[in-house]
Design goal:
The protein is built from 7 helices and 7 strands, in the order βαβαβαβαβαβααβ. The chain has 237 residues and is α/β, with parallel strands linked by helices. The protein has one domain (7-233): NAD(P)-binding Rossmann-like Domain (Rossmann fold, 3-Layer(aba) Sandwich), CATH 3.40.50.720.
Length: 237
């Protein structure tokens, strides 16, 4: 069993890892649903997928906004009738020394990265529990992993990603009776705009396409024994 015909929601699909994942999954035959806050990049990705002859559903919205997320899943159910895979790729970073950290910046990062993952997981979880099947994959980061080198100015980002990893762990426990499998991926430096913003001194050891390949594996039947796993990727440039 592959990802072919699997209804797959990808957040943050307009750029970076989300974009690469959307293209890869569509090319592998998944029924791809794109979700992103910025309509223009989303439209470009959808046009590229359609131009290759694949069907796609594109919805603009903010993962941290409960109404937007509920609308997303309602639209998917109206159109597709099920949700097989959720890939939470949406995320932001803010670089600010902790002594200068303001509550608005802190809240914004936590809202998008952690609250957004929670909201999308909750809506997917409810649908998947009713259909007794589903896979959820959350994008965490080595920045949220204990014992890994940290970089100044990323306090909000690190905390948000540690929260995503912890959320994944408990959802795997609660999802097991419903045949819902939940995993996280914690990559190091991936060649994205976010990396260049957060840590421009780092040399990326992975491309978004590399990450998309890993996410495809985790979503497929070959990874069926992986539940609650946080895949830590220490890539070398």
């Amino acid at each position: 069993m592959s990802i072919q015909n699997q209804v797959t929601i990808i957040t943050g699909a307009g750029r970076g890892i989300g974009r690469a994942t959307a293209l890869r999954f569509a090319r592998q035959g998944a029924r791809v649903v794109l979700f992103s806050r910025s309509p223009a990049p989303l439209t470009q990705v959808a046009a590229e997928i359609e131009g290759e002859g694949h069907s796609v559903l594109s919805i603009a919205g903010d993962v941290s906004n409960e109404e937007d997320v509920i609308r997303l899943f309602q639209k998917v159910m109206e159109t597709c009738g099920r949700v097989d895979v959720l890939l939470n790729c949406a995320g932001i970073v803010a670089v600010k020394p902790f002594v200068e950290m303001d509550a608005a910046t802190w809240d914004h990062v936590i809202h998008v990265n952690l609250r957004g993952t929670f909201l999308c997981c909750r809506e997917a979880f409810r649908i998947m529990a009713a259909q007794h099947s589903g896979v959820i994959i959350n994008l965490s980061s080595l920045s949220g992993v204990k014992g890994v080198e940290k970089f100044p100015g990323l306090s909000a980002y690190n905390v948000s990603k540690a929260g995503v990893a912890s959320l994944t762990e408990i959802l795997a426990v609660e999802g097991k009776p419903h045949n819902i499998r939940v995993c996280a991926v914690s990559p190091g430096a991936v060649d994205t705009e976010m990396l260049r913003q957060a840590a421009p001194h780092l040399r990326a050891g992975m491309t978004p396409n590399d990450m998309a390949e890993i996410l495809q594996f985790l979503a497929g039947e070959s990874a069926r024994m992986l539940n609650g796993t946080n895949l830590e990727i220490f890539s070398n440039a």
